[in-house]
What we know:
Blueprint: E1 2-7, H1 16-27, E2 31-35, E3 46-48, H2 50-56, E4 59-64, H3 66-79, E5 82-87, H4 103-111, E6 115-127, E7 130-134, E8 137-141, E9 149-155, E10 158-165, E11 167-171, H5 179-182, E12 194-200, E13 210-213, E14 218-224, E15 229-233, E16 236-241, E17 246-261, H6 266-282
Parallel strand pairs: 1-2, 1-4, 2-3, 4-5
Antiparallel strand pairs: 6-7, 6-17, 8-11, 8-15, 9-10, 9-14, 11-12, 12-13, 14-17, 15-16
Helix pairs in contact: 2-3
Amino acid sequence: MKIGIYANLYRDAGGKVTRGLYDELKNAGVEVLLSDELRSLGLDGEYFSRMALAGESDVVVVLGGDGTILRIAKECARQGAKLFSVNLGHRGFLAEAEKPGFVSDIIGSVIRGEYILDTRSFLEAKSKGNKFYALNEVVVARGTRTRVVKSEVRVNGALVDKYISDGIIVSTPTGSTAYNLSAGGPIIAPDVEAFVITPISPHSLHSRPIVVNNGSEIWLEVLNAEPHAHLNIDGEDVLNLADGDSVSVTRSDLKIGFVRLKDYNYYERLLEKMRYWNEIDKN
């Protein structure tokens, strides 16, 4: 088995967790591959770009938060690598393990193949001749000035609504616990074949999130924005959108397999995280 390590060294100060994982895997006789970002640790191994790391690895172990996962998830999906994540961030809903003490017990289960695969789909967004993939969400958001964006949303050609808001979120079930949740949208279980469309701070009481089948085509058009709107993919601004520009959002054929231990339970994880977030918010 080949296991790649992709770590956020901002979260892993001094590389302590990364070094521990590397040593444990080497001692277990596993071939270890390293991402280019880890060169500063001086580990004795071969280094790869994100795409090459995903292409050469059977499983990529990600050390960091949800943002770190999102940065390499598309590469893993394209290359067919499984992804196992250890949360070194704050919320870490996508992660399987939470503590640095995971190495001996949990990674051992991965090496022995004692796990289940949690498969998640991506969104495909097309705009202005560009194509993007999102594991969490596609967002059309207002520009840099503190003015709202006027937009129109259609599903399979049928008008859903015309919104005056700070933006529109189209989220997968995976992303329903991210920006969508913060904007008042519902949580969608990962095995539900649906997307959720959520307006951000709408200026109308009737404007509410709506859940649609994930076989639908969602059409977002910017009617008016000052000076422009932003197309945001999984937290990253990728395009400016002028009046009349549109975004088509559909389900992608791209999928990522998250390695989960056999006792993984989505609803237990959800409850645990929601309780944790509540305590953090109180402080």
